Structures are given as C-alpha cells and as structure tokens.
C-alpha cells in the first residue's frame, strides 16, 4: 500500500475511503497505520474514532452508518500490524509495549481535529478498549477526546487462576528477554466461527486479516498486555465521561454451543464489571443481555438495544 497524505478508495466500497498514516520505523522495519472514514454527507462538528480489537480490523459498515445518522463523522483506525496497516515484513499484531499504538492515535486524532471535529468520542473494542483507555490517560493528544466508549474492553485475561497468576507473569518476564518467542493464539476458534458467513455467523469480512484460527502471539506482546492490565488494576484517573458496555454473560460450555450467539466467548464479563469503575469517577457500566463479545456483531435485536443505549448516553453526555 503506497504511503499518501490524502484519501484513497477503501475495500468497503464507495462510501468509505482510507488515508495511510506513516509512522517511524520500529524493530521490524517500516511502520504505518491506516485511518478509514465514512464519506461525509454534510458538515459535522462531532466525530467518533473507533479502534478495533486483537486479531481484528475495521469492517463494520452498519456501525459507521449508525453514527453518521446521529450526526457523527465516522472514522476508524487500523492500528499498526493489523488489517490495512499490516506490511509483508511484519508479524501480525506484534508490539512490545502498548504505548507503540499511541503514535497511531496521535496521528488519527490530529486528522480529525484538522477536519473540523471539535467534539471527539474515542471508542475501542476489546484490546482496542484497553488501548483507548490507556491513551486517554497518557496520550499526547488526549485533550482532544471528549468522551470514551468501550465495547467489551479487554481489562484482564480470561484464564484459570494458575495461568493468570503464574503462567502469564512468567511468560511476560520471558518477553523482556525473548520478545519474539511465539505462543499459540488464545482466542477460541468457536468465537470466530460464530461471526463469519463461511462458518456459523452472519458477517462477511476479509479472513486473512481476521482469521478464525487466530494469529500466534509473542511473549513480547503478552508482556505489553500484562503491563497494560497492571495499570488498569492500579486504577486510572480519567476525568472524562466513560460508557462501558459488555455482554451479560460469559460462554461457559466447552466447545461449540449456541451460547456464542448470546454471551461473551472471549472475556470474563465479571472482570469487566469489577475493573471498569477503576478507570475514573464518571464511568457508566451496562450489561447487555444476549450480547456477544463484540456487541456490534450481536444478533439484530440485540444490536438495536446496544445502539439505543449508546446514543441515549451520547445525547445526555455530549448533546
């Protein structure tokens, strides 16, 4: 993908366009992130910047259109080494510190401000929710953010006690000295199968960028996540209003079950409920009965409830 400073056509069709955001090289070589926007239909002073999760990229057309219908300019960021931003010489998803993503967010927020958006909602799903929360605390352009919306944020590992308290800290320590050591991906394949049309789901997206069998992770990546989770457990001090939505239940049955269509098949929702209030004093937490891990990919009736709660909160918060 050629580097440019203007918008180009996007794979999602004529209503969407992308802008490559070049970044300084890192330990793997050249780096870029990619800003995608829904073509504006008129002037808007409010906008949303959406950040995807792990093993993911932006493809949710419906979500973009819903925001636009409510008066928000819509932008999404494919972080470095994900989706549109993944370059041939890079390991997918590979970072050694979550702060590496801050430059991607800095650049994206600068574009939104330059395009006339004075009120910006930063939204993150799963790992993107973790990154968004930490950026809102520490990022260079954090003052541009008016509110934060987190969709099933990845605030803690969904593992048994031994793995969470012994195995992961040990692997994170190894990551300091051997960051490229590969570990099998941790997302259940049944979650991916519950989403894509080729399997059991209703959505169509580019499987090489969001495979059902997830990309392997590295000990360096695990160390970065572990450090981010420790910062969440200690607590942040975010003064801005925050909405956290999550599924009401976690998938319990081993192997495939219909639970994946009505519960979180990736995270433990009890962790989200327990840790979300540590983000700051203005956190609203709401459990969505029947929701999936990515609430915006839940069944249609559930999605309607999610959008209703989201835009009700946005109207009360941002006007």
Keywords for this structure?
single chain; 319 residues; alpha/beta; Rossmann fold; nine-stranded mixed beta sheet; two-stranded antiparallel ribbon; 11 strands
Explain this structure to me?
The protein is an alpha/beta fold and 319 residues long. It has a single domain, classed as Rossmann fold (3-Layer(aba) Sandwich). It has helices spanning 61-69, 102-114, 127-138, 161-177, 189-193, 219-234, 269-275, 300-318, and strands at residues 8-10, 13-26, 29-38, 46-51, 72-78, 119-125, 145-151, 182-183, 217-218, 242-247, 283-288. The strands form two sheets. A nine-stranded mixed sheet has the order 1-2-3-5-4-6-7-10-11, sandwiched between helices. A two-stranded antiparallel sheet has the order 8-9. Strand 2 and strand 3 form a beta hairpin. The longest helix is centred in the last third of the chain and has 19 residues, at 300-318. The protein is globular, with a radius of gyration of 18 Å. The model has no long low-confidence stretch (mean pLDDT 93).
- CATH architectural group: 3-Layer(aba) Sandwich
Treating each run of at least 4 consecutive H or I residues as one helix, how many helices?
8
Our Rg estimate from Cα atoms comes to: 18 Å
Q: Spans of 5+ residues with little confidence (pLDDT < 50)?
A: none
Q: What number of domains?
A: 1
Name the strands of the widest sheet in spatial order: 1-2-3-5-4-6-7-10-11
Q: What is the helix content?
A: 25-40%
At the fold tier of CATH, the topology name is: Rossmann fold
Q: By CATH's scheme, which homologous superfamily applies?
A: Alpha/Beta hydrolase fold, catalytic domain
CATH class: Alpha Beta
Q: How many E strands? A: 11
Structural class: alpha/beta
Strand fraction equals 15-25%
Whole-number average pLDDT?
93
Order of helices and strands: EEEEHEHEHEHEHEHEHEH
Global outline: globular
The major beta sheet can be summarized as: 9 strands, mixed
Amino- and carboxy-terminal Cα gap = 38 Å
Domain Serine aminopeptidase S33: 44-249
Protein name: Lysophospholipase
Pfam families: Hydrolase_4 (PF12146)
Organism: Hymenobacter roseosalivarius DSM 11622
């Amino acid at each position: 993908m050629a580097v440019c400073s203007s918008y180009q056509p996007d794979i999602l069709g004529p209503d969407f366009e992308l802008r490559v955001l070049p970044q300084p090289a890192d330990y793997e070589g050249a780096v870029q992130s990619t800003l995608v926007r829904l073509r504006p239909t008129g002037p808007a002073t409010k906008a949303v910047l959406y950040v995807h999760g792990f093993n993911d990229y932006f493809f949710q057309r419906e979500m973009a259109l819903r925001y636009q219908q409510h008066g928000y300019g819509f932008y999404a960021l494919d972080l470095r080494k994900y989706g549109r931003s993944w370059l041939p010489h890079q390991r997918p998803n590979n970072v050694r510190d979550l702060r590496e993503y801050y430059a991607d967010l800095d650049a994206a927020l600068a574009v939104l401000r330059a395009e006339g958006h004075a009120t910006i909602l930063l939204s993150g799903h799963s790992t993107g929710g973790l990154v968004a929360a930490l950026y809102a605390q520490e990022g260079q352009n954090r003052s541009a953010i008016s509110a934060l919306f987190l969709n099933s944020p990845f605030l803690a590992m969904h593992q048994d006690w031994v793995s969470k308290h012994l195995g992961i800290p040990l692997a994170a320590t190894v990551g300091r000295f051997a960051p490229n050591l590969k570990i099998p991906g941790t997302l259940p394949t049944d979650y991916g199968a519950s989403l894509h049309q080729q399997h059991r789901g209703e959505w169509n997206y580019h499987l090489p960028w969001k495979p059902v069998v997830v990309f392997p992770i590295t000990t360096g990546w695990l160390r970065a996540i572990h450090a981010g989770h420790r910062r969440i457990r200690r607590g942040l001090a975010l003064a801005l209003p925050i909405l956290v939505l999550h599924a009401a239940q976690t998938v319990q049955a081993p192997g495939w079950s219909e639970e994946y269509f009505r519960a979180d098949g990736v995270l433990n929702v009890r962790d989200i409920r327990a840790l979300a209030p540590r983000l700051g004093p203005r956190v609203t937490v709401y459990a969505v009965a029947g929701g999936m891990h990515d609430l915006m990919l839940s069944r249609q009736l559930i999605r309607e409830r999610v959008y209703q709660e989201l835009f009700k909160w946005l109207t009360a918060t941002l006007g």
